[in-house]
Sequence to fold (295 residues):
Amino acid sequence: MFACTGVPDRSASNMSGVPEVKKEHSDLRASIKKIEPFFQPMGKPEAYDWLGSHNEPGQTFNEYLASNPSKPEKNRDAIYILPLGTFSSEQRKLIQTTSEFLEAFFDLPVKHMKARSLPAIPSNSRRNRFTGKRQFKTGHILEEILAPALPKDAAALIALTREDLYSDDSTNYVFGQASFNKGVGVWSLDRLDDNTSSSNYLLRILKIAAHETGHMFSLRHCTKYECLMSGTNHLGETDRRPLDACPECTAKICWLSEISLTEHYRRLIAFCRKVGLDNEGSDFEAKLKALEANN
Fold:
């Protein structure tokens, strides 16, 4: 069962002969060195983990820059959220909280589109062979619903649904899927509330939303650290990931958003304080202190 997949619209950028980061990126590279001690290196995959069944090379900051990544541009810098289906009042609150997190995490404006229905037809839905639950095919959502609806000022459009998702007949389910260069993605609330607390349910939602949005800005799966951008194959693996990107992936996010790493963490600290994510807020505060030390 796959928990996150990215549509490979472009070949991977991890290759030999990647040029060095230009001199103007030296300050950012120096900054991310200061936060490396806060991240756990990726260990040997456990049973059913993502890297146990996916041979991925990862993607350094240098490789990302060399890949001609999708980046927000002037007059095309908004992240749009499109609800697909109907949601309870509590779920609508979670959508709003997710919007605020994405805005803080990527330092980009987040806008909401009017909710749309998700009609079930044979070509885009099936019944899960284990649960009997209805599932929608992610490719249909990306290509037939989201791509034609992409606003002119959108850097990315991500849809949210309560429906269970699958990518193809080889998968049991996926938590979400996104295109690396078409600016569209989708993720599901379904399954994320399984056997967990309300606070961890929120963390799972935030992690999946930011992960899929990262793919839309050409971030590949991280294989170097336990990272928000690492692939996850099941909820246990999702829970192991931090609510933060590793140094290499954080450099990519700061570069595409044109924000300093200190300001990036200040925004995340403010968000965590607002929504009561005390442990995560303390983690961001410790990283900020490390960045500000000896400056």
In short: The chain is about 40% helix and 15% strand. Residues 35 and 287 are 6 Å apart (CA to CA). The chain has a mean pLDDT of 90. Strands lie at 4-7, 78-84, 110-112, 125-127, 134-137, 154-161, 164-166, 176-179, 184-188.
